[in-house]
Amino acid sequence: MSIMTRFVRLFQADVHGVMDSMEDKTLVLKQSLREMEAILDDQNRHLKKMKAERDAAAEELARYKKENDAAEADLEMAVQKERDDIARFLIRKQKNLLRHRDHLQSQLENLEAEIGKLKEEIEERRRQYDDLRLRAKTYLSRQDIRRQRTDDFDNGFPDAPGISDEEVELELLRRKERMEGHKRGEERGAQ
Predict the structure, then answer these.
(1) CB 105, CB 62: distance < 8 Å
(2) Cβ atoms within 10 A of the Cβ of 57, count?
(3) Any idea what DSSP says for residue 157?
(4) How far apart, in whole angstroms, are the C-alpha atoms of residue 148 and residue 87?
(5) What does the CA dihedral 177, 178, 183, 189 come to, rounded to 10 degrees?
(6) What top-level class would CATH report for the domain 3-154?
């Protein structure tokens, strides 16, 4: 086996090793993208859940407001009719309704703040994901081009079937002889 054939085989082996390492990076990159997408999906589900909780709290708050308005109207009537026992009962009821309303209002405000933060976080992660996906697409297309070039190189330089070691050696000797002829000509010209 000639030195050139060994060199070509060594080069091909090195190229295949590089390709293997690139494929591992490609797999890791694709897996990272899938994980980021899964996280975004989870966050969107969490956001929908929080919005549903907010909507339920808003409905409950509206219901407490209606009950409070009704209790207020009844309280006014009880006071006008001088029904102190009913008025006391309605005052207790109204105080409880107001506590629950205030608690719901606070809960609703907290939910709104959390939803706002989560929306911002999702938007930022979506931008990062889109950016990474674009970079990955570019990287993967470059890897495909490199892989195609490597495949073209591999196909263009197989183990040289039909060319014997003797033919390679003969060509090498011819080239050496030409180089020595050029060196002699340069030496004669310099003298």
Answers:
(1) no
(2) 20
(3) S
(4) 88
(5) 130
(6) mainly alpha
Question: In sequence order, what are the residues at sequence separation of 6 or more whose Cβ sits closer than 8 angstroms to the Cβ of residue 128?
Answer: 36
Q: Mean pLDDT lowest for which of 16-20, 110-114, 150-154, 162-166?
A: 16-20
Query: What residues does each domain of the chain span?
Result: 3-154
Of 34, 16, 43, nearest to 132 by C-alpha is 34
**Which pair of structure tokens corresponds to residue 99?**
């506590």
Amino acid residing at 142: R
Each residue's pLDDT tens digit, 127-173: 988 988 888 888 888 877 877 776 655 555 544 456 778 888 888 88
Q: What is the pLDDT of residues 33-61, one digit of tens each?
A: 889 899 999 999 999 999 999 999 999 99
Note the pTM of the prediction, 2 decimals.
0.56
